[in-house]
Amino acid sequence: MSTTTVDTHCPYCALQCGMRLAPKSAPRAGHAPADAVAEAPAGAPAEVVERPDFPVNRGALCSKGRTAPAVLSRAVRLTGPLVRDAASGELVPAGWDEALDRTAAGLARTAEVHGRAAVGVFGGGGLTNEKAYLLGKFARAVLRTPSIDYNGRFCMSSAAAAHQRAFGLDRGLPFPLEDVPRSGCVVLVGSNPAETMPPALRYFTELRENGGTLVVVDPRRTRTAEQADLHLRPRPGTDLALALGMLHLVVAEGRVDEAFVAGRTTGWPQARAAAMAHWPELVERITGVPVPQLREAVRMFCDAPSSMVLTARGPEQQAKGTDTVGAWINLCLATGRAGRPYSGYGCLTGQGNGQGGREHGQKADQLPGYRRLDDPAARAHVAAVWGVDPGDLPGPGRSAYELLDSLGREVRALFLSGSNPVVSAPDAARVTGRIASLDFLAVADVVLSETAAMADVVLPVAQWAEETGTMTNLEGRVILRRRAVAPPPGVRTDLQVLNGLAARLGWEEGFPVDPEEVFEELRRASAGGPADYSGITYRRIAEEQGVFWPCPETGGASAPHPGTPRLFLDRFATPDGRARFVPVSHRPSAEEPDAEYPVFLTTGRVSAQYQSGAQTRRVDELNAAAPGPFVQLHPQLAERIGVAEGDPVAVTSRRGRAVAPARISRDVRPDTVFMPFHWAGEGCANTLTNPALDPVSRMPEFKVCAVRLEPAARA
Amino acid sequence: MTSTTSRTVVVGGGTAGVRLVDRLAALGAADGVTVIGEEPHPPYNRLLLDGVLAGRYPPEVVELPRPDGPAYLSGVRAVRIDRDDAAVVCDNGDRVPYDTLVLATGSSAVLPPLRGLSGTAGPGSPRLPEGVRTFRTMDDCLALAPRARPGVRAVVVGGGLLGVCAARALASRGVRVVLAHRGGHLMDRHLDPRAAALLRAHLESLGVEVRTGCRVRGLLVRGSGEGRAVEGVETADGSRTEADLVVPACGVRPRTGLAAAAGLTVRRGIVVDDGLRTDDPRIHAIGDCAEHRGTVHGLAGPAHDQADLLARRLADPGGAGGTGRVPLYRGSRVLTRLTLTGPRTGTGPAPNPFSAAGEGAGDVFDLAAFGEVAAGPEDHELLLSDATRGSYRKVVLRDGRLVGGILLGDLAAVGTLARAWEGGEPPPGHPIHLLTTDGGHR
Q1: How far apart (Å, rounded) are the C-alpha atoms in residues B230 and B413?
Q2: Which residues of B touch A256 (CB under 8 A)?
Q3: From residue A295, how far is each of A189, A283, B339, B349 by CA, in Å?
Q4: pLDDT grade, residue A3 (50/70/90)?
Q5: Chain B residues lying within 8 Å of A581, measured CB to CB
Q6: Best mutation site among A233, A253, A296 for testing chain B: the one with the most B CBs within 10 Å?
Q7: Bridge partner residues of B429 (DSSP)
Q8: Chain B window 114-143: which residues touch A at a Cβ cutoff of 8 Å?
Q9: DSSP strand pairing (A371-372 vs B240-242)
Q10: pLDDT for res A74
Q11: Distances from the Cα of B84 to the Cαs of A115, A523, B36, B262, in angstroms?
C-alpha cells in the first residue's frame, strides 16, 4: 500500500482553492486521485501540498489555507460529545447515545409543548451541499418546521435577491474567474480580495498586466484599493448613490447601448428616470466622491471593450443592499455589459459553500435546486423525492436575524450546525441573550465555539479533510472535497448525526451516512430546478476539475450536458429571456451619524482570520499574524479624541460597547472607523452593528452604523 | 371621507415637491397625497434643463420618477388657499381639501427692468417680444431649443450661475452668444476675480463673447403689439448689439403670492420654523419659496434636505416611533457646483461596446464654491493656483473656521471641503490639508 496524496479543497472561503493533503509523517510516493488512498492515522495532522492543476488558484494558497491542517489537531477541537450537567450547570463529557437521545428529546418535547414551528434549525454556509441538503430535509420532513435559515443570509442574500430580480437566476459569478483578466475593466465594489481571498488577487493583477483597468470602490484604502487604477472612496452606505451617479453620466455622455437595451432588457425608462434624479453633483454631495472621479470611472468602464462589476459584502451588507446591487446591475445593463463575453455583473460570495448552501434547502424560503418553497410544483417535486405528502411540507419561515431574534419566544429549541452567531450576528449581545433564553440548544461543530459553549448538547463533528462532500464555489463550480484522514474516535460526521437524530424521531430511512448516496438524492431533488445538479456526478467533478451548474441529466441516450461556465450569453433566465431593470433610488442608512454618535463604523475582515474565528483563532501562526481586534481610525480623529497608536479605544453604539486598541491610519476616512469582526469578548465588533434589515433580502446592515469614540482605561 | 388617511396636498411639482413625494413613498406614506403642478409636463429635473437646451437629452429623459400612490394634477394652478375651509382652490375650479398643506411653489425668473420689455416671466407671459425668453422651465427650454441654431445671435443678460449655464448650452448648439454681465466679474456672488477670469477664459474658448461691467438697459424691438420681435439690446454706454434671441438670466424670486394672500408671514420667502411650518401649523413650505432663519437657499441641495426632513416628519408625526423626537431642520451648508461639459468627442447613437472609440464628456470645466470668497483684512486666505493645469483652489478662514472657498479645475479635495464646511468646526491641523487631501488621502 503506497502512501500518497489526496485531492481536496481548502476549508475556508468561497474560492475553494484546490490543494492536496499528505499525511505529515509518511513519505509521499505519488499522487492518485482515485479513491484507493491510504488514510493518515486518525487525528494526525496532514500536510498541504500544492495542487497547480486546479484552475481557480493554480496552486496558490493564503496563510489560512496553508495552515488549515492545524485545526485537524486533536488539541484544538472537540473529540467527544458534551452535555450540560443539570446539577453543576457545566458541560460534561457524554456518550453519543446520550447526546443524541437528549437532542432528539429536546427537539421533540418543544414541538409537543409549543408546536413544530417552535423548533428551529440554523445552518451554515460552510456546510457541504450534502449536509445542507440533509439539514433542510431534516427540518422540513422530520421536524416539519418552517423555522430554518442559515448564516449565509448574512453573506450574499442581497446579491442573490438582486440577481433574481434582474436575471431570473442567482449564481454568484455568471462566468469563471479566468474571464476576469480577459475583461477590459473591472469595478470592484466593497470587495477586498487582498485580505479576504488572497489567491484571487492574481486575477486582478493579470487584468492590469493585460492592459485592463481596475476600479475599486471602498471607503478605505485597502490593500486591494492600492492596486487600483482608480480608487473611489464613498462615505459608508452610499454605494447606491454612486452607481446611480455613474448611470446618470452614462446617459449624459451618450454611452447607453441602445441596441442592447432594446433587444435584451425591459424596464429601462423607469430605471433611467431614477438615475436622472441623481445628477453627478448631488451624488458628489451624498458620497463625497468628486464628480471628476465619477466621470473617470465611467470613462474607464465604458471605453473598455468589455467590463465587469463585482460586488462583495460592502454594498451588500446594508439595509438597502438589494437595491444597491440592483443599481450596479442597471449600470451593466444600460451599457450592454451583461450576457456578453468578459462582461457582466457578479458577486464574490464569501463563505466556502455560500453558493451551494443557498441552493439546497437551508434557506427559509427555498427547497433543493433553488426551488421556491411557495411554488406548488416545487413542493410536489421535492415531496416526491422525500416520499412525503406535499401538504406536510411547512411554508416559508423567518430569515436568519429574525429567527435568532425569535429565540426563547416563538422558537424555543434550536439545532445549530456550522455557525457561531454569538460572534457573527449583528447586535451580537442581544442575539447572545436570545440564545441564552432558549429552552434547549444543540450545537454540532468541530470546535467549542462561543455559541457551542452555551449549548445543552454539543455534538463534535468531522471536518473538511475527514469527510467527503461537494461544495459550490463562487463561480458556481461544483467541486469535490475528498476525505484524506480519518476523524478522531469520538467524532462523527454531520451526516451520521442527522442519521442518528432522524432515526430517533421516526425516520429510520432517508438519511444516508454516505455522502455520495446523499448527493445522488440531491441530484434527483434538484432536477429541473434553477440550480440543476442532476447531470453532475462525483466522477465528473474529479475528471473535469469541477462542473458548473446548471447541468441537467440528459439520460443515457445523448451526450452529457457540459455544465454551464458562462450564463446568459444567449438569454437571461427570465420568462421572456430579457434582463429586468429595476428602478432604485438612494436612501440614507438606517442609522446615520448624529451629535450623539458622530462617526461611521464599518466592519470587515483581515487576511489571517476567517469569519467568527472559530477555526482560525485556534491556529498559532494565524494568531501571530492577527492576534486580536483593533479600531482603525484616521489621525485627525485620533487627535480629536486623544488616543495614540495602541491605546485602547471604546467604541459605543446604541446597541453596545466594544474596546480594542487604536490602529491609526490614513487609509480610513476621518469620519469613519473600521473594526474587523473575527473576535468574541470585549473587542467583538458585532456588539455594535445594526440589525436593520433589507426589506427584500433580510440582510442586516453590518457595514454601516453610527458610533461614538473615547479613550478607554488600559486593562 | 371613509378613509382615515390624512390628506396631504403639495402645491408645486418641482424639485422640492417631487422629492417630498418620492421620500413619502419610500417611507410608505404616499397614500392620500395630491400634487398640484402648474406645468403641463410630467415632473422633470430642472437642473438638467441646460442639458436639454444643449441637445444632450431629449426632454423625456429628464423626467423624474413618479411613485405610485399620490394623485398628480398636472397643468393645474393653485390660485387660493382657503384656510378656514382647509382647501386649495385651483384655476380649473377644483377645491382640493387638505389636512396638511405643503407649499413647494419654487421661484420664478426675475425680469430685469429693460426698456422695451413688458409683461411678466413664467408660463402665460405672452407679452414678451418674440425672441425674448427666460430660461427657467421646460416650456422655456422647448421654446428656446428650436431657435438655438448655428449662426443665430443671442444675448444672455446676466453672468450669474444661470446665465453662465444658458450661455454654455446655447454656444454648444452653435449659437453666437454674447454674455452681458453688469458686475465686474462673472458669478460675482460665488467667485473672486481670479476664478472668474478662468471661467471667462473657458467660456471664451467655447466661442462665448463675455462682456463684464456691461449693463443692458433696453431691448431693441421691431413691430408692435403681438407682433413685436427683438432685434438686439442697448447697453448703458449707448452701444447696440444685434440679437435674434435675448435670454434674461437675472436671478430668481421666491413665489410667495399664494402664501401672502392667505395671510401667512412672508418676507423674502415664506417664513418657516425648524419644523418647516409656516405660522399656520397645518401649512409647510420647502424649497426655493421657503425662508428659514432668514435664508432663502434657492439651490437643489437644501430643497432636498428640507423635503427629506419634512417627509420624515409627515410619515411619522410621533417622531422616532412615538418618542416625540421629531427631526428638525437646522439649515443646509452646501457647495455651489457648476460643471460645464464640453462637446462630446464622439456623437451618434450607442457606442459599440467592442470598440474603444472615444465617447465621453469631452472638455470639462468643474467648479465648486461656497461661503465668503473675498477675504477681509483679518481673514486667513490660502490659495493654490496652477496656471498650467488651469486649477485654482482657495479657502478663507476666520478665527480658524472655514468661511468660504473655491475649487476650480481640480476637485480632488471637494469631499474634504464639503465635510469641513458642513461640519462648521475648525478644521484640524494646518488648513493646507483642506486643499491637498481628499477624505484623508495621503
Answers
A1: 45
A2: 350
A3: 16, 12, 11, 19
A4: low
A5: none
A6: A253
A7: none
A8: none
A9: unpaired
A10: 86
A11: 58, 72, 20, 10
Residues 343-372 of B with CB under 8 A from A: 344, 346-351, 353-356, 358-361, 364, 366
Please provide the CATH number assigned to the domain covering B336-436.
Answer: 3.30.390.30
Digit-coded pLDDT (tens) for B316-351: 887 665 566 788 999 999 999 999 876 554 333 333
Cell, residue A532: 440543476
> Percent of chain A beyond pLDDT 90?
91
Q: Could you tell me what percentage of chain B is helix, strand and coil, using 3-state DSSP and rounding each to the nearest 5?
A: 25, 30, 50
For residue A306, list chain B residues with Cβ-Cβ distance below 8 A.
Answer: 353-354
CATH superfamily, domain at B110-251: FAD/NAD(P)-binding domain (3.50.50.60)
Residue A362 contacts by C-beta under 8 Å, 6 or more apart in sequence?
Answer: A123, A127, A132, A135, A136, A148, A149, A150, A152
Q: Is A182 on the interface with B (CB under 8 A)?
A: no
Reading the block at residue B275, the C-alpha cell is 419644523
Is the pLDDT at A684 greater than 90, yes or no? yes
| ipTM for the whole complex | 0.92
- B437: confidence class by pLDDT, cuts 50, 70, 90: low
Q: What is the pLDDT of residue A60?
A: 95
Q: Within 10 A of A514 (CB to CB), how many other CB atoms are there?
A: 12
Strand partners, B391: B386
Domains identified in chain A and CATH numbers: 6-76 (2.20.25), 82-154+356-467+493-510 (3.40.50.740), 159-347 (3.40.228.10), 599-711 (2.40.40.20)
Scan residues 269-308 of B and list those with Cβ closer than 8 Å to A: 300-301, 304
pLDDT value of residue B423: 82
Average pLDDT estimate for B136-151: 94
Beta bridge partners of A186: A214, A308
- What are the tens digits of pLDDT across the range A604-622? 999 889 999 888 988 989 9
- Could you say which of 3.50.50.60, 3.40.50.1100, 3.30.70.260, 3.90.1150.10 is the CATH number of the domain covering B8-106+255-315? 3.50.50.60
Looking at chain B, which residues constitute the CATH 3.50.50.60 domain(s)?
A: 8-106+255-315, 110-251
Predicted local confidence at residue B323, as pLDDT: 61
CB contact under 8 A, B355 and A306: no
Q: How far apart are CA A68 and CA A60, in angstroms?
A: 14
C-alpha to C-alpha distances, A102 to A148, A362, A446, A458, A462, nearest whole angstrom: 20, 23, 19, 11, 20
At residue A327, what is the residue type? A
Grid cell for residue A78:
472537540
In the predicted model, is pLDDT for residue B127 greater than 90? no
With a CB-CB cutoff of 8 Å, which residues 340-379 of chain A face chain B?
A: 340, 343
Asked if A270 and B65 come within 8 Å (Cβ–Cβ), the reply is: yes
Give tens-digit pLDDT for A354-404: 999 989 999 999 999 999 999 999 999 999 999 999 999 999 999 999 999
What's the confidence (pLDDT) of residue B1? 39
Which helix (H) or strand (E) segment holds residue A701: the answer is strand A700-701
Question: Which chain A residues touch B341 with a CB distance below 8 Å?
Answer: 252
DSSP-H helix ranges across B173-221: 193-205
Residues of B whose CB is below 8 A from A636: 428-429, 440
**Distance of alpha carbon A494 from alpha carbon A627, whole angstroms:** 31
Q: Which chain A residues have a beta carbon less than 8 Å from that of B356?
A: 184, 303-305
Which tens digit of pLDDT belongs to each residue from A124-155?
Answer: 999 999 999 999 999 999 999 999 999 999 98
How much is the pLDDT for A569?
A: 96
pTM of the predicted model as reported, rounded to 2 decimal places: 0.93
What residues are paired with B365 via a beta bridge?
B340
Mean pLDDT (chain B, rounded): 88
CA A580/CA A267 separation, integer angstroms = 6
End-to-end distance of chain B based on CA atoms, in angstroms?
A: 62
